[in-house]
Write a structure and sequence with these properties.
Length: about 240
């Protein structure tokens, strides 16, 4: 999936140019102040897909609302026809993202806004790639506002160690805890959903469970080999 996401990056951007004036159909709307996170790790890179109410991008990520709205707060999907990946870069600009102890260096691949009552499936990396590249519903007769929208964004990075723990620290923001639905794919992770509550300023840390799982698994295999070898030696 990492290779596919990177290879499709230019195609995704082309799709944004041609299709960002529309939005997709799918699931029902979700509550405010919550985000969905899909992480797809490979041996060489990491892809991350985020889904959230557009308002949450403003209140929790610090995105300037003017990137999404026009004068008077209305949203015109045609304004996104020049491309949206730069908005994705601004979305992550205020977030401290680290892989191990180093800055992660994620680059946005695309960003899309959909009507929040017509959300797309968002469970797997393929869902994430689809959500940031495909739209199919015309601009509503009444221009939507920020609170009518659900936002999807994708990012990719190629760190020296793509399997190291990943740490997200959002800008400090007043308010209640942020609800996070996390699905991780890659070594040690099969997309099992985890639901977390983050207090303002509390970091989201990913990947530690996967590493501990493999550490235990390796130790178990080594112990099993030692037992078998010892029994064979005793028989001889």
């Amino acid at each position: 999936m990492i290779g596919l996401g990177h290879t499709c990056k230019k195609l995704v951007r082309a799709a944004v140019l041609g299709a960002a004036a529309f939005c997709g159909a799918g699931l029902s709307a979700g509550a405010a102040e919550q985000i969905e996170v899909i992480v797809d790790r490979g041996t060489r890179g990491i892809e991350i897909f985020l889904g959230m109410p557009a308002r949450t991008a403003i209140t929790r990520f610090g995105l300037n609302a003017e990137f999404l709205t026009g004068p008077g707060g209305a949203v015109d999907f045609a304004d996104f026809s020049g491309g949206t990946w730069d908005i994705g870069d601004h979305l992550l600009a205020g977030v401290d993202v680290r892989i191990g102890k180093a800055e992660a260096g994620f680059e946005a691949t695309s960003l899309m806004v959909h009507l929040k009552d017509q959300r797309l499936p968002f469970l797997t990396p393929i869902d994430g790639l689809t959500a940031i590249s495909v739209c199919g519903v015309a601009q509503p007769a009444i221009p939507p506002t920020l609170d009518d929208l659900y936002l999807y964004a994708g990012f990719v990075a190629y760190p020296p160690d793509a399997l190291a723990p990943l740490r997200f620290t959002l800008p400090q923001a007043p308010g209640e805890a942020l609800s996070v639905t996390l699905r991780e794919y890659g070594p040690g992770h099969a997309g099992t959903p985890r639901r977390l509550q983050l207090a303002p300023g509390e970091p989201l840390i990913l990947g530690t469970q996967g590493r501990s799982f493999f550490g235990v698994a390796i130790l178990a295999v080594v112990a099993l080999i030692a037992v078998v070898a010892l029994r064979g030696f005793r028989r001889v």
